[in-house]
Each structure stands twice: as C-alpha cells, then as structure tokens.
Amino acid sequence: MKFFFLFLLISWFCLSCGNHYPLEIKEALQQAGKNRHELEKVLEHYSSNPADSLKHKAAEFLIANMPGKYSEYYDAPWNDVATVCLRWTSSSDIQSVLDAYKLGALVKREDVKYITADYLISNIELAFQAWQDKPWGKYISFEIFCEEILPYRVSTEFLESWREKVLASFADINKTLREDSTMTAVRACAEVNRLLPQFKMDKDFPAMSYTQLMATTRSLCSGQVALAAFVMRTLGIPVTLDFTPHWAKRPHGHDWNSVCDSSGRHISFMGTETNPYAPHQGTNMLKSKVYRRTFARNRIINNPNEKDIPPLFRDDIKDISAEHKECIDVKIPVIYPPKAPSSDAYLALLSDFQWHIVGYGNTDSVNINFPAVGENVIYLPVYYTDGKQYSAGYPFLFDNNGRTAAFISDSPDSLLTFSAIAPPANDHLYSLHMIDGVFEGANKPDFSDAKIIHTVKKTPDLYNNVRLSGKHSYRYVRYKSPKDGYCNVAEIEFLGISGKKLEGVHIGTAWSYRNLGQTGDKAFDGDITTFYNAFTASGAWTGLDLGEQQTITAIRYVPLTDGHGIYIGHEYELLCWDKDSWKSLGKQTAAGTTVEFQAPSTALFYIVNLTAQKKGRVCYILDKQMRFFW
User: Fold this and answer.
1) Which segments in the chain show pLDDT lower than 50?
2) Which of 115, 135, 167, 622 is most buried when burial is the number of CB atoms within 10 A of its CB?
C-alpha cells in the first residue's frame, strides 16, 4: 500500500510540474510520446540553477518549436557515404542511383520522437559559449541568438554533432575571432566565408548534414547556404537562410544568407561564394518576393486545412521583401469573388506560361492588398482552395514608374501585327558572326583553285538575296567562316540559270560545337530553325558538291537565328490569358516576316510557332509598343 501511495505522489508531482509548462511546451511533450522524458530532462537540467535561467529559456524555445522539425535521409547503414556517392555520381536518374547503391526508402524521422537530451544540452552549451566568447556577442540580442545561432538543425538533414565537428575543423579561425577585440560579426562572416569550400551546382537529393557537405563538391544553392549556417552559427556569427521562391525571369528560385550586424540590420551574402556587401544574385537579380526561413513556428497563413494553403506557406518563413529595394505595396481590385467565403488571396508570378504562387494578400470587399511586391513583374491575383488555384482578378504589371497596368481580355478587337515571338533583337544575336565570311566556288575538291563569289560585309538581315554579276561556273561551292564565327549559318541556297535551287552532296568541316549535332548539313536542310555551329571557331566551312560544273547566278542565305522570328511559310498561333486559361485567338501562316491577328489590345499574349513547335515569350502592349516578358 505504501508503494501505491508513493506511486500516486510521484505521478501527481510529474503532472503538476507538467501543468506549469507553457502551452507550446505541453504540445511538444504530448507529441513526443515515449520520448517525452528526453525533452523533460533538458528542461529539468536548466531548472535547478538560477544562473541557467537564460539557457532554460533557450531550451524552451527549441522544444516549443520542435514539432514539425524532422530528418529526411535514405535508409542505409552508411548514410554519410551514401549521400556523398549520390553527390559524386554523374547520373541524372535518381532512381537508378538509389538502386545502384541499395539505399532503400526515404526515411522521415520526427525530432520530438527521437532527439536526445544529451544532444540538445550539448547544442545549447556550445551555442551559448560561442555567443558569449566573441567580442560582438554583446551586441546580439537573445531573440537574434535564438533564431540565428542556437538552432540545433538547419534544414531536414540527418542530425549529427555538427558543432563539435565545426569547432575541430575551424579551431584556428575560431581562436582568432575570439581574441580580436575589434572583430565584428560582419567581418568575421567574411573571414570564415573565404575558408568554405566551393561547390558545383548539381543534384537534388535530401538536405545534407555538415559532414556530408564538407565531403562533397556538389550541391544546390540551398546546400551552400546550409554549410555557411552550420559553420557561422557554431562560431557565434548570427546567420539566416533567405530565399526567393521564384525569380521574376527565371524558372526557379534561389537561396542565400544574411548576417546580422551589431545594430540588428541584416546584410546579405552568398555562402561559400560572396561576402557581405559584395554583389550576388540575391541582390542583383529581379525578384518578386523574399522570405527568411525561421526555426520558430511561423506560419504566414493560418488555416487548419492544409489543402487550402499553397506549399510555399506550409513552411516556417518570414516575409522580408521590405528589406529589399524595388519592392512596393500594391492594391488590386477584386474582379472574381472567391468560391469559399474564407479564401485567402495570393500573388502568382508568371513563369513558362504557368502561374506560380509567390506571395499573399489581405482582402477586403473591394481590393486585395499585396505587401512589398517586386517591380516590373507580371502577376495574377489568385485564390487557392483544395490544392487548386483560380483567378481573383486580371493579370497586372507594376512598373518602376509606379503604374499598374491590368491586362483585360474582353476589350474590343484590334488588328495586331507580330514581327517576332520574342524580342526581335534576339533573332539576330548571332548575325554578326557572318561578317567577313565568304562564299566561294571551285572546280577542285580541295578548293585550291577557290574564287570568292561574295563577301558578307555587314550584319546580314534575316533573309538575304545576293545576285551575282559576271560568270560563275563551279562544281564545288561553299560558305567559309570568318575568324571566331563558328561558321554560324542557318540556311544557304545556290541558284542556277533558271533561278532554281541547285542540289548537291554536302561537303565540309566535320563535327560540331561540343558535338551537339549542329553539323554543316543543317545549312542545307531547308529548315530555318536549324543551323551549323562548327567544332572550331575559325576556318570551318560547309558546302555542296554539285556533281558537275553549274552556273551560279545568285545566293540566298539566312544567318543563325534563335528560332523566335516570323518565318515565311511557318504557321503561328496567338493565345491570350482569359480568366483561368490561355485562349486561342486563331492561327496564321506567314507570307512574309509578319503575321496579323484580331485581338484585344489590352490582353496578355503569347504567340507560338506551330511549325517549329516553339513557344514565344509572353507579350503585351504598353504605351502603344509591343513589349515582351520572359
């Protein structure tokens, strides 16, 4: 009976202690299940000594925000080696690599259910030591410390004792930073960043641990910023992980770091590549929105139904777009009501003719207010319900003059003329490669008796017709590249007395640039979208053996194009964005170098070359001019 009452007393004591925990701690302990005692052991460890009160708060911060954190890795007893092998393989087929190394299934292990008290206590002790023994530490607040030095993990990597490993690897620089009383966090960041290994952008497997990152030369930008965070945080340098979910004019996003200076301001840098204040992609390129990953549970969108939250906003992130220049608040009228009354409004960015959610908005009965939006980007206000998105209004462009242009597809029709399906200049990027190139004729197969019949003296047009004067009778004809011209030419025709194209057997320099298949015969295949790109920069040539001497009266040729022009005989289709899809406005076959369509002049368009199966860029009319985006 005594043992029974003792058991009740102990149980009551444990429950009463647990009842003193904040709600977030209680939730974490409840989710921990059988691992609850490991988390409670950490809290108890820092409860006995009043001098550890700040460490106790740090432990509470880690445990309260632990739910949702996890490791993701392949089920292999040699996990570190496995990941390094993945990074070193040249295969782009993930499954074949997994099969070859017998890595098994992808494992997801929740921190609350597996993390140990020893691991957390060691992490807290080393984080505090680094914070307090650095000369800049006194300027770093506890709040910054908790987010940018203290966290025991960076991403979803396999947990290891990374702080101990960093201290062993970077012992010399750690001693230097600690002993230099004038050292600042920003300068320390630059000193350490110079020591980090360089990476080749490659592979997309689960996040790597510190050991794995140090053992490989391949990673995505997320791996680069992760390595910087592991090392910097171990050395007491407060560092964040920032990202843009999608570049304004590239089909992907990007990650970089920021370091917190003594005033609390964050200065961006690219881990392993560029130091604070130096330009990098995160500062130079056109962005729509910018976010910062947080350890604290920080959901921008609070909705109990995850299917009604875009994937971007299911992570713990903070909107820091306002920290970046050229981001301004925008107000857009609601045109289409939501299907569900509680639907949140989002900002979608146009990329590769698809809309990708990158931001969020606050909606009233009339407008959607989008905070800190990047300029000169085409957006669409959307709703997101049950995993699907649909329009809330018209696509719009907010330019750097403060103007907002809405693209409306139901305006009156106009006759629109298209001279290209991308910026017209793009189609002539390589035309100058033909300047000083020569067309020659010969009657000996080695061209030892070659005569120049035409020299390209200026940047050629798209279609070029050269009528020859005098008598030109040859069996062998060719185009010879000028210096550094790579013999770039798309089409060549030699015309006879009747004005018809002469046929022959292709002759010329072998191979192509990087052996990509752009060989010399492509200049005679009748397809303007194929071309010759020679193996060598200078001296290459492509031509025909006409079988016998033929009189040459004219030459027609087309320089290398990027395939975005309007070409004679090609069929084009024009589409415009109409509420929730791209709507066809018809098809036209080009009789010249332009095509015309009846279309609403205020809409958002893209035009497709159906013959070459090539999409153009999104385009619109603003200030009476055709402008291309993407």
Assistant:
1) 1-18
2) 115
